[in-house]
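Repro:
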Amino acid sequence: MTEQGYNSDFRPVQFNETTNANHNHSLLLANIPIVEGGNTPGTVEGMLYRQFLFDANEGNQGENPFLSLDRLQIYQETSGNLGGTFVSGVGFVATGQHLVYDLDATGDHWIALNAGLSSGSGKSDVEVLIPNSFFDPSVPYVYLYSAFGLQGDGWRSDSGNEEWAVAGGQSGRGGGSKGRSQY
C-alpha cells in the first residue's frame, strides 16, 4: 500500500490524510521548534534548524516492519487552509507558496525506515532537521507533504497512520503533547 498527504485545515482531504482536525491541521512556523546544531550527527555546530518529528507507525514485529519515505516536501504559504489542488513537486496550484525543502531536489531519493527500531505508536522515531535559514519568517504557515511505500513489496505502508509532529504541540491542539498530521 502507498500513502501520501499533507497537513491543512482544509476539508475534505485530498489524499490519505485523516479528517480529524486534532491530527491534521495547519502548522504555524512560529510553533516549529528551533534547535541548535552540533550535538546531532549531520548538523553544523551553531547552525539553527527547524525540528520535525516522525512516527512510522508500522508494525515493529511480524513480516514487514519496513517503510520507504519517498517524497518529503516542505512549503510555506500565507494561508493555513489550502487543499484539494496539491501536485507533488509543484505545490498548491495557483497560490503564492514557495518550496522550502525537497528531498528529491538533486535527484530521485528515498529513505529506508525500519519500524522494528520504533519506540512504539504515538512516539517519534525520527527527527528531521531543516536549516532555519530555508524558511521565510514573514510567511506564517508551513505545509509538509510526504509519500510512503512507493518502493514496492517489502517497503509498503501496511499498518497504522504515518504521523508527523512538532514537539510541544501548537495552539492547544494536537494529540497528546504533539501536534500531528496523520496519513
